[in-house]
């Protein structure tokens, strides 16, 4: 038996290149549910924000090209690149990431050690 011998999936008969996707209402319901789920996650995340802020340090480059997040012990947990990173060469970007990381670690040490 090959894939050609199998019947099409149930939804395949209802849609195709000349037919609209099935159930626009289903998609709208899915999106409503998805947005509600995301709003719930956002509310939960906001309650955790003080804990995250207390245990992490963020540092950004002056131009906003790089933002680095470290724990209070200096462990790297995130690197985010802003739009202006595209204007930098590879070596410049690497140096900026390292410099921003070093500043985040120094701030984490200051917070940790008082």
Give your account of this protein's structure.
- The protein has helices at residues 10-14, 24-55, 90-113, and strands at residues 56-60, 66-71, 76-81.
- By secondary structure, it is α+β, with helices and mostly antiparallel strands.
- The protein has a three-stranded antiparallel β-sheet with strand order 1-2-3.
- The longest helix has 32 residues, at 24-55.
- It is flat.
- The relative contact order is 0.10.
Task: Please describe the topology of this protein.
Elements: H1 10-14, H2 24-55, E1 56-60, E2 66-71, E3 76-81, H3 90-113
Antiparallel strand pairs: 1-2, 2-3
Sheet-strand content, in percent, reads: 5-15%
Regions with little confidence, pLDDT below 50 for 5+ residues? none
Query: What Rg do the Cα atoms give?
Result: 24 Å
Distance between the amino and carboxyl termini: 71 Å
Tally of strands: 3
The overall pLDDT, averaged over residues, is: 83
Side by side, the strands of the main sheet go 1-2-3
Structural class: alpha+beta
What is the H-and-E element order?
HHEEEH
Mass-distribution shape = flat
Q: Biggest β-sheet, characterized?
A: 3 strands, antiparallel
Question: How many helical stretches?
Answer: 3
* Estimated helix fraction: 40-55%
